[in-house]
Here is the input.
Amino acid sequence: MKKEEFKILFDTYFDDVRRYVLYRSGNEEIANDIAQDTFLRIWEKQMTIEPKTIKGLLFKIAGDLFVSQYRRKQVAFTFFSAFQPNNKSLTPEDEINFQELINAYDTALKSMPEKQRTVFLMNRIDELKYKEIADQLGLSVKAIEKRMSLALEHLRTQLKDKISGLILFVLGFRLNRIKTETKK
Here is the structure.
């Protein structure tokens, strides 16, 4: 593989590989490291790769590297570190409820089987369609549908006590937002 070919490969697929590992690990630093190691393996082995199978191969290598690293140490999840609502529109009770909801959701994601969590996050965060997820993971659309169904059922079960609070929180948050916007 020539340097130019490798650069095109890297530029085209690095973000996809990094995001895939991020969904599996929940840690951006680990995702970056494993994505880089994936491409390093390709470069070091000077692999000849068919264009049809390139994405699947990259995901397979990244997945194997992640599993190897995961076996060596347990990973801490930080799915909600970037998302925070506008605290000016929240009451102290809303802030407590929101924090409890974040903790419950984080716990539910942590306890979700990895394959289901990966599909769930690819669909909900990246907004990928089932067909796109199936293509990236090298699975059938039916398998993706099944994993997504199981992931949603897992969340429903884990968050059943929080669902009514979630609905009230979202409604309250939206009403506060609407009130704030109409005052402007």
In short: The two ends are 58 Å apart (CA to CA). The mean pLDDT is 77. Residues 3-72 form a domain with the Rna Polymerase Sigma Factor; Chain: A fold (CATH 1.10.1740).
